[in-house]
UniProtKB/TrEMBL annotation:
Residues 109-262 form the Terminase large subunit-like ATPase domain. InterPro entries: P-loop_NTPase (IPR027417), TerL_ATPase (IPR046461), TerL_nuclease (IPR046462), Terminase_largesu-like (IPR005021). Signal peptide: none annotated. Residues 294-578 form the Terminase large subunit-like endonuclease domain. This is Terminase. GO terms for molecular function: endonuclease activity.
Length: 591
C-alpha cells in the first residue's frame, strides 16, 4: 500500500476562489464545507495538498466496498458530502516543528491540519460504512509504523459495529485481505506491526495506549468523556493522530452527547480568522483542528417539509428512500411519540426527554358510545379482567382501572375506570387545576371520600365488590402508598397470588406502555368515554430512556395522569398473567 505522499502540487492558503467540490457543497445548502475550507485557508502556515486529496478520493472505490444488503460488494463511491469530508481531512496540511529522533535536530514536518472529525447525521445515511472506511484509510493506508487504532462507544457491543464493517470490507477486497489479518475483536497489520481493536466503554485499564486512530461511535449515548479523554491523551507521541467521532441526534437530557453537539455547533459558529488573544468570540469556538460535518434540522425548521428531509439526508435515494421516510412520517403525523422518533432518527434533530403522548382524537375514536362508562359494569358481569391501581398520597386522586380482554380475536379491550378524591379538596382542586372535579363528582365519574384525605377503605370495598361481579384474574399495583391496602385486602380473603407489585420504571413498564399506545392508535382501547380518564389521557406525557423506550411520566405531565398509570399497571398484570415466564420475578415483584 502507498505511503503518505511527500511531494505534490500545492494550492496555497491565499487562494481566494473556492474549489469546485466546495462550491458544489454550498449549492446543496450546506454551510460546513465553506466554513471549514475558509477557516483552514486562514490558519497561519496551512496549505492544501491537492494531489493527496485527489489520490485518496480516487482510491476509495478501488479499495473499499459496501458491505450490506443490495449494496454488498459494490465499490464504495463517495457521495458528495463524503468526498468533501475526505478532501478536507487528507488535503489540508500545516507545518509543525519537531525534533528529528535520529539527529536530535529541530526540523519541520508537514502534518494533517484536522485532528478530529465530528459527524452528525441521520440514520441510514451510511454513517457506519463511512466511519469504517475512514478508519481503514487512516490506519492501514495513510499509516504509521506501530500506529494503533481503537474503536469505542457506550459499550463493547456497540463499538463492534464499526469493527464489523471494517472486517467485512477486508473480507470482500483481496487487496486489503492480503495486508490485514482479521481476528474476533481486532485486525492486525503485520507490515506496520499495528493493531486495530474495539474497546469496552470504560476508561479503566486504558492508560498506556498510544493511539494513532480513534473511532468513537454514537456520541449521544456516551456516559462520560473519560475514555475519549484517556485515548486522546495517549496520542501525544503521534505527529498526526486522528479522532473520528460520529452520531445521530439524541435526547437533550443526554448530558455528554448534547454537550458534544453544542460544542460542534459552537465550532461551526466560530470565527474564520484566528481571533486576537483574549478576544470575545461570542457563542462560537475557534478550533481550526476540528472538522464538523453536520446534517440536521434546527429547532424552528418545519419537520413536515419534504425539502427539509432532503436537506438532512444527504444519501437520500440510495439510503434511506423517500418512500420509506414518507411511510415513517405517516406514522408520526398524529402520534407525538412516533413524531419524536422520526425527528430524532430520520431528521437528526435533538428532542426533549419527555413529550405529550396520546392524540385525543384517536382516544375519542376508541369509544363508539361516549356514555358507555355509566352502565358498563352490568354488560361485563362475569367477564375476566385485570386490574391496575395507582394509589395517591393522602390528598391526591386514587385510580382503579379494570381491563377486560376481548372474548373474540380482534375485539377491543373494554375499560372500567374508577377514581376517588378527598371531598374537602374538590372545590380547591377545581379552582387551582381549572378542571371540573365538582362536575365529575356530580356525574359519578369520580367518588368523593369524606374529609380531606382519601380513605383507602373505599378503594378496598370497591375491589372486593367488583371481585364478586367480575372474574378478577390479577391486579397490578404501584407499591408506593399501597402497603396498608394490600394487607387489608389479604385479610379480607383477596389472595396474594392475585396481587402483583409493579416497579415503576422503563424496564418494567415499556412493554405495557407501548401496548397501550398501540391499542389506542388501533381504536381498540374502549374506555366508554369516561371523562376523568379522558382528561388524564390529554394530560399524559411520556419520558424516554436512551434507547427511546418510553413510560408515562407524572413528573413531566402538567396535570394528573393517575388513570393512565393505573391502565399501564393493569396491562402489566395482563401481560404477566399471559406469559409469566417472560418476566423476572422475585417475591411477586416485577423488576
Amino acid at each position: 500500500m502507498p505511503e503518505t505522499l511527500r511531494a505534490a502540487p500545492l494550492i496555497h492558503a491565499a487562494a481566494a476562489d473556492l474549489p469546485e467540490f466546495i462550491a458544489r457543497g454550498a449549492a446543496e445548502g450546506w454551510d460546513w464545507p465553506t466554513i471549514f475550507w475558509r477557516r483552514a485557508a486562514a490558519t497561519p502556515g496551512t496549505w492544501y495538498d491537492a494531489a493527496k486529496a485527489d489520490f485518496m478520493v480516487d482510491l476509495w472505490p478501488d479499495i473499499f466496498v459496501l458491505t450490506d444488503l443490495r449494496f454488498a460488494g459494490v465499490p464504495f463511491r463517495l457521495a458528495l458530502w463524503q468526498e468533501i469530508t475526505v478532501r478536507l481531512l487528507f488535503g489540508w496540511k500545516i507545518p509543525t516543528e519537531i525534533v528529528d529522533p535520529r539527529t536530535g535536530a529541530k526540523t519541520i514536518a508537514h502534518v494533517r491540519l484536522f485532528r478530529r472529525l465530528l459527524l452528525w447525521i441521520a440514520r441510514k445515511n451510511g454513517k457506519s460504512e463511512f466511519l469504517a472506511s475512514l478508519a481503514l484509510a487512516f490506519w492501514a493506508i495513510d499509516a504509521v509504523y506501530g500506529g494503533q487504532g481503537y474503536c469505542f462507544a457506550l459499550n463493547e457491543k456497540q463499538a463492534g459495529t464499526v469493527l464489523t464493517k471494517m472486517k467485512a470490507m477486508i473480507a470482500q477486497q483481496p487487496r486489503l485481505a492480503r495486508e490485514l489479518a482479521v481476528f474476533g475483536k481486532s485486525i492486525w497489520c503485520a507490515r506496520k506491526l499495528a493493531r486495530f481493536e474495539r474497546l469496552t466503554g470504560k476508561a479503566a485499564g486504558k492508560h498506556g495506549m498510544s493511539p494513532y486512530v480513534s473511532v468513537g461511535d454514537e456520541m449521544h449515548e456516551w456516559d462520560s468523556r473519560d475514555l475519549d479523554t484517556t485515548i486522546r491523551q495517549g496520542m501525544a507521541a503521534q505527529l498526526q493522530p486522528i479522532e473520528l467521532f460520529a452520531s445521530t441526534a439524541g435526547l437533550k437530557t443526554a448530558v455528554v452527547g448534547y454537550d458534544l453537539y453544542k460544542e460542534s455547533r459552537a465550532i461551526l459558529a466560530g470565527p474564520i480568522e484566528p481571533p486576537d488573544a483574549g478576544a470575545d468570540t461570542g457563542e462560537g469556538i475557534y478550533d481550526p483542528r476540528s472538522l464538523v460535518v453536520m446534517f440536521g434540522l434546527e429547532d424552528d425548521d418545519d419537520w413536515r417539509d419534504e425539502d427539509n428531509w432532503r436537506k438532512v439526508n444527504p444519501n437520500l435515494g440510495l439510503s434511506p428512500t423517500m418512500d420509506f421516510l414518507r411511510g415513517e412520517y405517516a406514522k408520526a403525523r398524529n402520534n407525538p411519540r412516533a413524531e419524536s422518533h422520526f425527528r430524532r432518527y430520520h431528521l437528526n434533530q435533538w428532542v426533549d426527554a419527555s413529550i405529550r403522548w396520546l392524540n385525543v382524537a384517536r382516544w375519542d375514536a376508541c369509544a363508539a358510545d361516549k356514555q358507555a362508562w355509566k352502565t358498563r359494569a352490568e354488560t361485563l358481569r362475569g367477564r375476566a379482567c385485570y386490574g391496575g391501581l395507582d394509589l395517591s398520597s393522602v390528598k391526591d386522586l386514587t385510580a382503579l382501572v379494570w381491563i377486560f380482554p376481548p372474548e373474540e380475536a380482534g375485539g377491543k379491550l373494554e375499560i372500567i375506570a374508577k377514581f376517588w378524591c378527598p371531598e374537602e379538596t374538590i372545590e380547591q382542586r377545581s379552582r387551582e387545576d381549572r378542571l371540573p372535579y365538582d362536575r365529575w363528582a356530580r356525574m359519578q365519574a369520580l367518588t368523593p371520600t369524606p374529609g380531606d384525605m382519601v380513605d383507602q377503605n373505599y378503594v378496598m370495598r370497591a375491589i372486593l365488590e367488583d371481585a364478586q361481579v367480575f372474574d378478577v384474574k390479577m391486579i397490578g399495583y404501584d407499591p408506593m402508598f399501597a402497603t396498608k391496602l394490600i394487607s387489608d385486602l389479604q385479610e379480607e380473603g383477596f389472595g396474594a397470588e392475585r396481587m402483583l407489585k409493579v416497579r415503576q420504571g422503563h424496564l418494567t413498564l415499556a412493554e405495557p406502555t407501548k401496548m397501550l399506545e398501540v391499542e389506542v392508535l388501533a381504536g381498540r382501547f374502549d374506555h366508554g368515554g369516561q371523562p376523568v380518564l379522558r382528561q388524564m389521557a390529554q394530560n399524559a406525557h411520556i419520558a424516554f430512556d436512551r434507547n427511546m423506550n418510553f413510560v408515562p411520566s407524572k413528573k413531566h405531565s402538567a396535570e394528573k395522569i393517575d388513570g393512565i398509570a393505573a391502565s399501564v399497571n393493569a396491562l402489566t398484570a395482563m401481560l404477566h398473567a399471559e406469559d409469566k415466564t417472560s418476566a423476572y420475578e422475585s417475591d411477586r415483584l416485577i423488576i
